[in-house]
Design brief:
- This protein has 353 residues and is of the alpha/beta class.
- It has two domains: 8-197, 3-Layer(aba) Sandwich (Rossmann fold), CATH 3.40.50.720; 203-351, N-(1-d-carboxylethyl)-l-norvaline Dehydrogenase, domain 2.
- It contains 16 helices and twelve strands.
- It has an eight-stranded mixed sheet with strand order 5-2-1-6-7-8-11-12, sandwiched between helices.
- The longest helix has 20 residues, at 230-249.
- The structure holds NADP nicotinamide-adenine-dinucleotide phosphate.
Length: 353
């Protein structure tokens, strides 16, 4: 068995945290999960089950899981030194790698909590969407070594204690010396980690794809059905088109993470459905039931990550003197407490497309 360089700590045991952490543990890593009490209780009773679209199933029994309630908001005093110093680590664990897996709105708080407990220089890999999370985490925890990461696949909670990976896609990170020793474990876990000298193009390439999340959430449809609806693809094409114009104005070339190069995506999305099915057959290898996590958030009445997606495009466009009208509309709509549901036709009418 491949020996990882030390324990890993998942900060935010949800879809991505449980999936990536669970697979690393199944590949031999000592993984500690920090999460909300309700999630931990499910894991304590049912264990952790991970499935994927190829029918692969991994189960970690409750007794195998190292579960920790939320990180205290003050450093713990060490009994051994008279109560004056910090005990480094979360729940007595000094991780060799932290996986930061909270939603964008929780990044600053989670990073600040980690900084209270972890030794300076602890590597923290942000597995979050958007382009700003690593900078937000680094600002809240300047002593920690925050590394930008990218998860190219989709994971949803299928039932209590059970997370399902419904699409394929790669895992990527900024090249960093602390990650080298982890590469064999990620590979053994079936999630090879691709290291990049510059993550910005990769993050923007992913953000372009994530512009589908609000369309999916507002449609209320499973991902595959939504992508096979041309009206909904036209809306996605408009959101991506605005982002591409803003990126061009800033001289940023987004990485290609889907079948088509980014600049061809708006054209490809507008194709008639029969042709789109042919052109995008690899990207359409998606479980019939897969949805985006933004759809889950809307269904559960939780705040969405819309500001980290459309909001980022709106800001990038503004700073280039442009206007990203469709992204502005989506941002406003998904920021409502109850965004409701709309058909593709209704969205196109509202956006004048
Ligand atoms: N799901 C996907 O398919 C996918 C794919 C690629 C990238 N991502 C990105 O990965 C990140 C995580 O997404 P996700 O879908 O895994 O979210 P998620 O299922 O909501 O998981 C995050 C978990 O962390 C918890 N949390 C937040 N702050 C915490 C704290 N201080 N201590 C302990 N637990 C805390 C959250 O609880 P509360 O809800 O109570 O805050 C939630 O249970 C996002 O940036 C997302 O965009 C997701």
């Amino acid at each position: 068995m491949i020996r990882p360089p030390g324990p890993a700590l998942v900060m935010g045991a949800g879809a991505i945290g449980c999936w990536v952490g669970g697979r690393l543990q199944a590949a031999g890593a000592e993984v500690h999960f920090v999460g909300r009490p309700a999630v931990l209780e499910e894991l304590r009773v049912l264990g952790l089950t991970l499935t994927d679209l190829d029918g692969r199933r991994t189960h970690l029994a409750p007794a195998e899981l190292r579960l920790h309630a939320e990180v205290p908001d003050a450093p713990r005093a060490a009994a051994s030194d008279g109560g004056s110093g910090n005990v480094p680590g979360v729940a007595g664990v000094a991780p060799a790698l932290v996986l930061l897996c909270v939603k964008s709105g929780s990044t600053a708080e989670a990073a600040a909590l980690l900084a209270l407990h972890l030794p300076p220089g602890t590597p923290v890999l942000s597995l979050q969407n958007g382009v700003a999370n690593p900078a937000v985490a680094a600002a809240a925890a300047p002593g920690l070594a925050v590394i930008a990461g990218m998860v190219g696949f989709n994971v949803v909670r299928a039932s209590p204690g059970h997370w399902h990976r419904g699409t394929w896609g790669e895992l990527a990170a900024q090249a960093h010396p602390a990650l080298q020793a982890w590469l064999p474990t990620f590979a053994a876990a079936g999630m090879p980690l691709a290291l990049h000298a510059d993550m910005k193009p990769v993050q923007w390439g992913k953000l372009l794809l994530n512009l589908n999340n609000p369309v999916n959430a507002l449609s209320g449809l499973p991902l595959k059905r939504q992508l096979l609806d041309r009206d909904l693809r036209v809306v996605m094409a408009a959101l991506i088109g605005e982002a591409l114009a803003a990126l061009k104005a800033h001289g940023i070339e987004p990485a290609q993470l889907a079948t088509l190069p980014p600049r061809w995506m708006p054209f490809g999305l507008r194709l008639p459905t029969w042709l789109f099915k042919l052109a995008a057959r690899t990207s359409l290898r998606i479980d019939d039931a897969a949805r985006t996590s933004m759809a889950d958030d809307v269904a559960r009445g939780r705040a969405t990550e819309i500001d980290a997606l459309c909001g980022e495009v709106v800001r990038l466009a503004r700073s280039a003197g442009q206007r990203a009208r469709c992204n502005e509309w989506m941002q406003e709509r998904l920021s409502r407490p109850d965004p409701g549901r709309m058909t593709g036709r209704e969205m196109r009418a509202a956006l004048g497309l």
